[in-house]
Design goal:
With 397 residues, this protein is of the alpha+beta class. The chain has helices at 84-90, 106-127, 131-137, 139-152, 155-159, 175-345, 348-362, 373-396; strands spanning 3-7, 10-14, 19-25, 28-34, 37-40, 45-51, 55-64, 70-81, 161-173. The strands form 3 sheets. Strands 1-2-5 form a 3-stranded antiparallel β-sheet, with no helix packed on it. It has a 3-stranded antiparallel β-sheet with strand order 4-3-6, covered by helices on one side. The chain has a 3-stranded antiparallel β-sheet with strand order 7-8-9.
Length: 397
């Protein structure tokens, strides 16, 4: 955009480096170039501004194929101005001297020119092809047709324009047609997927069958080994029983032989014992007389020795017993003497009372007791006299 400033009755213009400025005064071209800056008098002056940088143009349009199906073409085009003076002579790029904007819309005219040209060559190519073929071929063929069409036309070169790049982004039919066109491909893809699934399942079934066969073969092998094991165990058991029977038979034979040998040994021993007993009896009968004689002599000697010993023992025991009896008698006599001496000093009534006490202790029961008045009076008088005497002795003390 050109920058225009006003100072009194003059104006100053300053343009960018990518803008080509053409200045006219009274209808004559007085200055032309890029990035110009100058003072000018608005009255009698006109200015044109042509952009020389690359411009991008997006386009989208529809065309009908040979089988009468609508197709949408979408792409982009980049162009630039190679001869600004020539293009300014063909299209109005004059600007407003107050705002610096283009009076008309020259860039929109260029866009419409390029879009119409692209659409013309593209629709011509689309009309010659079926929609399915267009989609299968892709945008490359349409792009070649458009480029050939631009090359055949000299109008752009004469106007000072150059196409930098051209591209077709997408060719698409309407939604219903696109969905219908997708169905066979989807079905094919689904069939391929189903086929892959079937093959995978078939492979899985085959592997399962192989696994089952391996398991069955393993079971058969195990059954065979188990059968061989059972057979071998039977053989081992039969051999063990046979060996045990053989060992038992050998043991029985050995026991019978041992018993026979033992019986023979017992018989021989009995015979030997009988012979020894007869010999011993003979020897005993021969030695009995001598033994009896010696025994008689020994017995007599023993009896004499025992008699003497027993007599001496009896004599010693008699002496000891006599001494013991004598000592006991002397002790009893001394005791009796002492006891009697005590009784001699006692009064007659005390002695009589002690005699009664001793007598009562030796009786089991007393059926009758007679106490005469003489005895009772005498004893009571003595008792009262003794009591008075005791009292007097206590009072004198």
């Amino acid at each position: 955009m050109t920058d225009i400033k006003r100072t009194l009755f003059l104006k100053h213009l300053r343009s960018e480096s990518n803008m080509h400025i053409r200045r006219f005064r009274k209808g004559r071209l007085v200055k032309s170039g890029k990035g110009l800056a100058f003072w000018f008098i608005p009255m009698g002056t006109s200015i044109a501004e042509v952009p020389t940088d690359d411009r991008e143009l997006q386009f989208i349009f529809q065309g009908r194929s040979r089988d009468f199906q609508e197709a949408t073409i979408q792409g982009e085009l980049i162009y630039r101005v190679t001869d600004p003076d020539c293009l300014a002579d063909r299209i109005d790029f004059s600007i407003d001297l107050n705002s610096g904007l283009h009076r008309n819309a020259p860039l929109e005219q260029l866009a419409s020119l390029f879009t119409n040209t692209v659409q013309k060559h593209a629709t011509r190519y689309i009309a010659s092809k079926d929609i399915r073929q267009l989609i299968v071929d892709g945008p490359e063929n349409i792009l070649n047709a458009i480029e050939q069409g631009f090359a055949a036309e000299n109008v752009f070169a004469e106007m000072g324009l150059e196409i930098v790049s051209l591209g077709i982004n997408e060719i698409s039919p309407v939604a219903e047609l696109e969905k219908a066109l997708q169905i066979p491909t989807r079905e094919s893809i689904q069939q391929n997927a189903d086929e892959a699934t079937f093959q995978r399942r078939a492979l899985a079934v085959e592997k399962e069958r192989a696994i089952a066969e391996n398991e069955l073969q393993s079971q058969i092998e195990l059954a065979t080994r188990e059968e061989n094991l059972i057979s071998q165990q039977g053989k081992n058991e039969r051999r063990r029983v046979e060996e045990e029977a053989t060992a038992e038979e050998t043991s029985v034979k050995a026991r019978i032989e041992r018993e026979r040998i033992q019986s023979e040994a017992i018989a021989l021993q009995a015979k030997l014992e009988a012979e020894s007993e007869s010999e011993r009896q003979r020897i005993i009968s021969q030695s009995d007389s001598e033994a009896q004689r010696l025994a008689a002599d020994t017995s007599a000697q023993n009896r004499r020795t025992l008699g003497a010993a027993e007599a001496e023992t009896i004599r010693l025991e008699g002496n000891a017993e006599a001494e013991k009896v004598e000592a006991i008698g002397l002790a009893e006599a001394a005791g009796e003497k002492e006891r009697m001496s005590v009784y001699e000093t006692l009064p007659a009534n005390v002695v009589f009372a002690l005699a009664l006490q001793e007598f009562a202790g030796k009786l089991d029961k007393i059926e009758h007791l007679n106490i005469t008045p003489d005895v009772l009076s005498t004893n009571l008088a003595d008792l009262f006299a003794a009591g008075a005497q005791k009292i007097q002795s206590l009072g004198g003390e």
